[in-house]
Specification:
Keywords: Metal-binding, Molybdenum, Oxidoreductase. Residues 249-375 form the Moybdenum cofactor oxidoreductase dimerisation domain. Residues 38-221 form the Oxidoreductase molybdopterin-binding domain. Its cofactor is Mo-molybdopterin. By secondary structure, the chain is an alpha+beta fold. It folds into two domains: 19-239, Oxidoreductase, molybdopterin-binding domain (Sulfite Oxidase, Chain A, domain 2), CATH 3.90.420; 255-383, Immunoglobulin-like (Sandwich). The chain has eight helices and 20 strands. The protein has a five-stranded mixed sheet. The two termini are 37 Å apart. A hairpin with a 5-residue loop joins strand 1 (51-56) and strand 2. Bound molecules: ligand MTE and molybdenum atom. Molybdenum atom is lined by residues 36, 83-84, 200-201.
């Protein structure tokens, strides 16, 4: 199938680390974390003079400095940011061709983000009565970066529900730091949104404007991209019929991948006929943390429970509410040994999260190759 979405102009930087490097550390180092850009990087933005606006359905529109954000209580969130197109390569090779960057399994990073809560920032401006519904907040919060021309639009933007933004438990922050250091320009300096559990596209970098509004963002990257179009949308022309009726993606699904052994490699069994297997797993949206990862070396007939690692903590961290809360948005790294027959073989993985979401055997094909979460798989192994 021909690609309908050829990019024009300068190709922005999009890169992912190889899986071995990614699995090497629980907290993904800033230099390892994937980069996903729809535009070139901005030149240095001076954090002392940069201002951004809070507008829309607020009592008092504001223009804020970074110093105003530093003056608010700071909140740290350990969270896995992932591009909606992570694992696209597997969707394209296992099901059929899709349009989009050929991400393998590395468009994901587990980092500590720090900054004020978005709800505290919005409270500075005061929310208008019109967004106060009977059962909670109505409307949306739009994040916009105005400075940079994107491939498909004049600027970058996206939104999340105001209810999510205002819910303390949802941990939505305006991040000033990543892994204990000021944000780098690549990752959104001086300030970016971080929306845990939601596709990375909403964690807008280089923020210029936050607007409270009744409607979802009408931005290209909210309305004409990052949607799980139905399978009937087989090409760009057919997709036109479905963009408006398909909701934008929001929460990411429960997922896991087998990182080691790599697909297509030769592995040697130990004296018991077992091989070492490692990978990562993430929970669905707000339903974390991951509580179980199962691995199979016999095509899913039998499953072995993997040992979970939450950054030096084992699964006993899941026993208390505080423990679970501390890794709710995070990934776990997992490892185990499984028995595999000699010859050609494969290993499979499937994750379950705290709410009981189980990673499905099959993934749904969708034109833009987003949201793939079929069982993790390392195929075409030569087992000796
Ligand atoms: N301003 C702006 N913000 C953006 C993007 C962008 O192109 N421009 N890309 C988004 C997407 S699609 C993802 S997955 C994440 C990637 O964040 P990272 O580059 O820090 O890993 O940023 C999001 N925020
Ligand atoms: Mo993304």
């Amino acid at each position: 199938m021909a690609k309908d979405y050829e990019y024009t102009g300068e190709e922005p930087e999009n890169r992912e680390p190889n899986i071995a490097e990614l699995l090497d550390s629980y907290i993904t180092p800033v230099s390892t974390a994937y980069d996903r850009n729809h535009s070139e990087y901005p030149e240095h933005i001076d954090p002392n003079t940069h201002t951004f606006a809070i507008t829309g359905l607020v009592q008092k529109p504001l223009s804020l400095h970074i110093a105003d954000l530093r003056a608010l209580p700071q909140h740290s969130v350990l969270c896995c940011l992932q591009c909606a197109g992570n694992r696209r390569h597997t969707m394209r090779t296992k099901i059929k061709e899709v349009n989009g960057i050929d991400w393998f399994d590395g468009a994901i990073a587990n980092c500590v983000w720090r900054g004020p809560r978005l709800c505290d920032v919005l409270s500075l401006a005061g929310l208008d009565d019109s967004v106060r519904g009977e059962k909670g907040w109505v409307g949306h919060v739009e994040f916009v970066c105005d400075g940079m021309k994107c491939q498909d639009a004049a600027n970058y933007g996206g939104s999340v529900a105001l209810e999510r933004a205002m819910c303390e438990d949802a941990d939505v922050i305006l991040a000033l730091e990543m892994n204990g250091a000021p944000l780098t320009i690549k990752h959104g300096a001086p300030v970016r949104a971080v929306v845990p559990g939601v596709l990375g596209a909403r964690s807008v970098k280089w923020l210029d404007r936050i607007t409270v509004q009744m409607h979802e963002s009408r931005h290209f990257y909210q309305q004409r991209d990052y949607k799980m179009l139905p399978p009937e949308a087989v090409d760009a022309k057919e997709a036109e019929k479905f963009w408006d009726s398909t909701p934008p993606m929001n929460d990411m699904p429960v997922n896991s991948v087998v990182g080691i052994p790599r697909q297509g490699t030769t592995v040697r069994r130990d004296e018991n006929g077992m091989i070492d297997v490692r990978g990562y797993a993430v929970p669905a949206g707000m339903d974390g943390p991951v509580v179980k990862v199962e691995v199979s070396g016999d095509d899913g007939r039998t499953w072995t429970e993997a040992v979970l690692d939450f950054g030096g903590n084992d699964c006993s961290i899941l026993d208390s509410e505080d423990g679970r809360k501390s890794v709710r948005w995070a990934w776990c790294l997992w490892r185990t040994k499984v028995r595999v027959a000699k010859g050609s073989g494969r290993v499979l993985s499937r994750a379950t999260d705290f709410k009981g979401n189980l990673q499905p055997r099959e993934g749904q094909w969708t034109l833009r190759g987003v949201g793939y979460n079929a069982w993790g798989e390392s195929a075409d192994l030569t087992v000796i």
